[in-house]
Amino acid sequence: MRILPIVVVSILLGSALGATMAYVSVGPSIPSSNGLAATGQASSAGSATPSPLVEVDGATFNFGTMQKGTTRSHVFRFTNRGTAPLELQAGATSCKCTMVDLSEAKLAEGDAAADQPIPPGESASVKLKWTAEVPAGPFRQTAQVITNDRRAPRIELSIEGDVTEVTGLFPTQFSFDKLRPGEIKTAVVNLVAYGDEPLTVGDTRFDPPGKAELFNVRVVPLKADELAEFKAKSGVRIELTNNPAMPLGLLDQWLVVKTNQPEWEELKIQLVGRVVGDITLHGRGWNEELGVLHLGVIDGNKGAKAKLLISTKGNQAEAIAFEVASTDPPQLEAKIGQSRLLNPGVNHTELFITIPPGTQSMNHLDTAQGEPGQIVLKCNHPQTPEVVVHVRFAVER
Amino acid sequence: MDRISTNRRTLAIATCCGLLAIFTAVATLVRAQQSDAPAPDATAGAETPTAPAYGKDSKLDPVEMNGPIFVDWPKPQVALVFSGEQQGYLEPCGCAGLHNQKGGLKRRMTLFEQLRKEGWPLVAMDAGGLAKRPGAQSQIKMRRAIESLVELGYSAVGLGTPELGMDLLSVAINLDAANNPLISANVGLVDFDSGFTSRFKVAKAGGKSIGITQVLGKSEVAELKNASDIVLMDPDQALSEVVPKLRDAQCDQLVLLVYGDADEARRLAVKFPVFDWVVTAKGADEPPFQPVPIEGTKSHLIEVGHKGMYVVVVGLYDNAAEPFRYQKVPLDARFTDAPEMQQMMTDYQEELTTLGLAGLGLKPLPHTSGREFAGSAACVDCHTQATEVHHNTPHFHATETLEARTTPPRMHDPECLSCHVTGWEPQKYFPFTSGFASLEKTPNMVGNGCENCHGPAAKHVAVELGELEVSEEEQEKLRADLRLKIVENEGNKEGQVFEGGKVVNMCVSCHDEDNSPDFDFQEYWPHVEHHGKD
User: Between chains, do A142 and B289 touch, taking CB under 8 Å as contact?
Assistant: First the structure.
């Protein structure tokens, strides 16, 4: 009966001894989420033995707006509120930020050198420098200072702001997305300048020049409220409207614009989009560029399945119907699934493609070893009575 | 039992208890001194200062570089994980010195697995921006990114402008309805009720229900006015419709993901002050150390950084004094590569291989100079000293690197080829006519060759070899066109001449911030220095 009290007392004694030693050694713990490391606020005293106590006058500094290519710096002031010398060492910085040598930066006369122990009650400075060699937009760069204050062993400093360029293009391309035959769309980019030299646009031309008649170009000066949106001083909106008689296929075209800005004497802006018919295919592995479904190399023991969506738009959408006319090779199985009218102008029909398990080895990867597989679909669309789906695959066993 | 044996037994027990007491004391001390040790993984490192040195071969301790994570965190009731603006980066940002760079789905999956292994219930959300640029390769990357996020168990994946300008429908139709994470209050794929996207979701984890919605910002909506297969709505109108439904769901916490900038996220938070967390995809490139309270609301603003280098984790607790903890998690080399995502990368590279450059929509374009490439071997006979220097640099072996030093090999990846072969546009990832097409078709265009800096030299070679007759004046012009001159103090560091430096600008088209963050022209140039004809 006397054993239990001995065990309990021993454990309590041991725990108390350990906790006391631990407290003396490191002081109370500080949660990381609200601690000094994140906020730059001084940690609380909690130890009777002499110890340093670091305080930072704001661990985050906002530079505001910076023009691309310019360099700015900020000095963070570290004060030792403790009772033992405070030691600082440069830690890691984010990749685009530089911490100036701790021995160099001094904020005020009488400051201690940051690379030497800072006596209690004294201050030292740490300087962060950054050159805005990044694209326009918000930035944040960080740096760490390692201290011997055990309550705040790692101080995290950050500088932030907005980088602007001399000029800007928003968006960076003319996007037409998908155009259907006869459809007219206008794609827009805004070309703005942040400097005092007002932006003007000179001649425009298309590259390659052969398809220039397919588009109309209009350059409109931006109004004050529009400029405010881009925080710019001058700018234009370039509107590009397509001609209804566009050939099917990719818009492989650039607009070349001459401006008075030295960086952009000639600016090439890409046209992005594709003229498509009423029927388009979608699905995992579908390559619109080639009109090919890519299934890759298939384990013959397992086989493979794919699901495509046949999207039909326009007047024929409501009554469209598909059937599988043929497949080549015959091991390539195709089946029409459900058809769904999403709204009066859009019909979605499922197409299931299967390479069954147990299929023998074959190569249809569209190489010298074999042509791609082929699925021929018949439909009741007056202009597109047949849809051919090429399938690239190989079966290995 | 006699008295002696009882006394001996008591002594033995007392001795054991004494030892136990000492052990307990020591263990308590050690635990206290290791209070930096994070809960889910051994990430705390020695507090030794380390100067940044992103050298290709120096492997730095990621914990020393980027700090320990989850220090002193108790297990949260639920952990909200935020990401966004991945910008097409399936792997860590950049290709050189990957160990020292951050990001990638392989590491993200390992983080998720570690947290789940520790029993943390996760609700993962992405604010959008998985893709960056148009094109077939980006389309494949977007699809693989979405499929990977599904595999990681994301509850919500928002829609950003780049992916909405692509064939998102092709991805959505193959997502299982039960775990389709695509979400947007103001963008519907085909239509709002097509089933391809949800306007809001309620995720349940750790006994909490988290209501989530996402919007595309106003300027982003305007940018997409020509997009096909989507319907768009003003974000304010969309939230007016969705917020009452979220309120009705009586969630413990509400999250608004915004594919827009921080100003727009703040504006929406003030107008719809029901959200606990408002996430902006288009914030700064690094997340802050703390979430920022949005004035006049109960909301906190979360920034997720760019290029998938970080995720932000918010742990929720039933503790009025400290209801949440916040951690920005650098996805650095402390996280090993998850084999599932490594396999995804292998499959991705195989897909690029079988599609080929044509299948990726890459048509060779004429070089801006109008000239054609000859290949570095054509330079050897006349420029022997320069060739010797070139042969002893990594430039000469750049193509081999893709084959032999990357796993999986990247020999068919245009985003890699553009700087590892001769005759490609380095930043736009397309070949010039007469540039590298494949090892079989253009074996003389391997390596980062002479002409990538000096320009295409086929006509100059033909003239010098007497295969083509031109005037002396033209012959001299052909030579002059290929000459490059370094100006005084040319370089890419502060105080050096960058804008007027033609050579350094050539270099940084490949040695950019992503792929060569420690590039210093004045330090690197002596290693490749060469001077014209012998």
Answer: yes
DSSP class of residue A278 equals S
Per-residue exposure over B306-325, b if at least 16 CB sit within 10 Å of its own CB, e if not? bbbbbbbbbbbbeeeeeebb
Q: Which residues pair with B303 in a beta bridge?
A: B280
Strand, helix or coil for residue B527: helix
Structure tokens at B476: 């001299």
Alpha carbon A284 to its chain centroid, in Å, reads 22
Contact by Cβ (8 Å): B38, B329:
no
Q: Check B165 against A175: CB less than 8 A apart.
A: yes
| Distance separating alpha carbons of residues A32 and B471, to the nearest angstrom | 74
Six-digit token string for A112 = 């201690």
Reduce the secondary structure of B227-251 to three states and give it as a string.
CCCEEECCHHHHHHHHHHHHHHCCC
Q: Is the bond into A382 cis (omega within 30 degrees of 0)?
A: no
Inter-chain CB proximity A154 and B47 less than 8 Å? yes
Q: What value of ipTM does the predicted structure carry?
A: 0.77
Largest CA distance in chain B: 122
Whether A272 contacts A173, CB under 8 Å: yes
Q: Could A25 and B33 be called an inter-chain contact, meaning their C-beta atoms sit closer than 8 Å?
A: yes
B416 vs chain A: nearest CA distance in angstroms?
A: 21
Backbone phi, psi, residue A204, to 5°: -125, 150
* A206 Rama class: left (phi>0) / alpha (psi -120 to 50) / beta: beta
- Comparing CB atoms, the residue among B13, B28, B171 nearest residue A19 is B28
**Does any CB of chain B come closer than 8 Å to the CB of residue A94?**
yes
Q: How buried is A17 (Cβ within 10 angstroms: 0-12 exposed, 13-18 middle, 19+ buried)?
A: middle
Cα angle A99-A104-A107, degrees, rounded to a multiple of 5? 95
Nearest Cα neighbor of B483 from B463, B469, B503 is B503
A-interface mutation test, from B29, B218, B349, most A Cβ less than 10 A away: B29
- Label residue B253 exposed, middle or buried (CB < 10 Å: 0-12, 13-18, 19+): buried
B452, containing H or E segment: helix B451-454
Single pTM value for the model:
0.83
Pick A22's closest partner by Cβ from B29, B494, B517.
B29
List C-alpha distances in Å: B133 to A217, A270, B223, B408, B432. 24, 12, 14, 23, 20
Q: Which residues of A touch B141 (CB under 8 A)?
A: none
CB atoms within 10 A of CB A347: 24
Q: Rounded distance, CA B29 to CA A24, Å? A: 10
A139 touching B (Cβ < 8 Å): yes
Phi-psi sector, B71: left (phi>0), alpha (psi -120 to 50), beta: beta
d(CA A87, CA A43): 16
CA terminus-to-terminus distance, chain A: 73
- Put simply, the chain A residues between 187 and 246 with a CB less than 8 A from any chain B CB are 187, 229
- The pLDDT averaged over each successive group of 10 residues in chain B (534 residues) is 45 50 44 36 33 48 89 96 97 75 95 98 98 90 97 98 93 92 97 94 97 96 91 97 97 98 97 98 94 96 96 97 96 96 95 88 88 96 94 94 86 95 93 94 96 96 95 96 94 85 93 85 94 84
At A183-221, the pLDDT tens digits run 899 999 999 998 888 999 999 999 877 777 889 999 999
Determine whether B453 is exposed, middle or buried from the number of CB atoms within 10 Å of its CB (0-12, 13-18, 19+): middle
